[in-house]
Amino acid sequence: MLDRAAFLRPIAHRGLHAVKRGIVENTAPAFEAAIAKGYGIECDLRAGHGGAPLVFHDETLDRLIDGKGAIADVTAADLKRLRHKVGGAQVMTFAELLELIDGRVPLLAEIKSEWDPPDMAFLKRVAKLANAYRGPLALMSFDPAVMAALRALTTGVPLGIVSGSFKGAGWWNRKISRQRAANLRDLLESAATQPDFYAYEIAALPTPVTAYVRGVQGLPLFTWTVRTPKDRANAARHADAMIFEGFEP
């Protein structure tokens, strides 16, 4: 069960980042900035070489890192030399992030997925770290198969489903059918994961299904990514907490 008292506060999307000030998403400076303001933190997790959980959003290094290649190929040795193009921060491991936060603020960690079969070596390492952590931590993913696997691997760690409209361009267009996208939009694949909460796209709110999970099931609803005053007003009406970016609440 999600601890509402701990988690239902503004959550900084990928940390409190600001590229103009040299603070890049999913890096230690962004997380430290969020902690200093008392905001919760949202981050992304991907598998590095051998399934090592790394704090990173993209499939490849190219957008953010002074280097090229797939994040899945990054080794422990690579982590010592790779730096972000802006600010020069290193790529963090999930273990390093948990040590940095140390229970000071809640953490929502999104497990990235390309809709392939779950990488069990990766998920087992995520689960081991999550099970041992004593601060407020929750795991979530767009992919119900990932969360169903984590349900079997974790004990007492809140688990959630991320979803939205699945409209427009997105990674899902080359991975899943329109019918499956509609099923995911309507949370029809969620039962096997027994979610403790949901995180839903702000531009899609309100929807009948999100009203149902809040009003009937009584589950907390986060909303992403809140960037404008209009978004913020919508989040206040139709969600329990916002995952925000580009301003400070």
Walk me through this protein's architecture.
The structure is a single chain. The protein has nine helices and ten strands. 42% of the residues are buried. The protein is α/β, with parallel strands linked by helices and 249 residues long. Strands 1-2-5-6-7-8-9-10 form an eight-stranded parallel β-barrel, surrounded by four helices. Helix 5 (120-132) packs across helix 6 (144-153). It has one domain: TIM Barrel (Alpha-Beta Barrel). It is globular.
Given helix and strand content, the structural type is alpha/beta
Strand content: 15-25%
Shape: globular
The SSE order reads: HEHEEHEHEHEHEHEHEHE
Tell me the CATH superfamily.
Answer: Phosphatidylinositol (PI) phosphodiesterase
List the uncertain runs.
none
Q: How many domains make up the 3D coordinates?
A: 1
Which architecture would the CATH scheme give at its second level?
Answer: Alpha-Beta Barrel
Query: Order of strands across the widest beta sheet?
Result: 1-2-5-6-7-8-9-10
Distance between the termini: 26 Å
Helix content: 25-40%
Tell how many strands the DSSP assignment holds: 10
Mean pLDDT: 96
Biggest sheet record: 8 strands, parallel, barrel
**What is the top-level CATH class?**
Alpha Beta
Q: Which topology does CATH recognise?
A: TIM Barrel
The number of helices is 9
Alpha carbon gyration radius: 17 Å
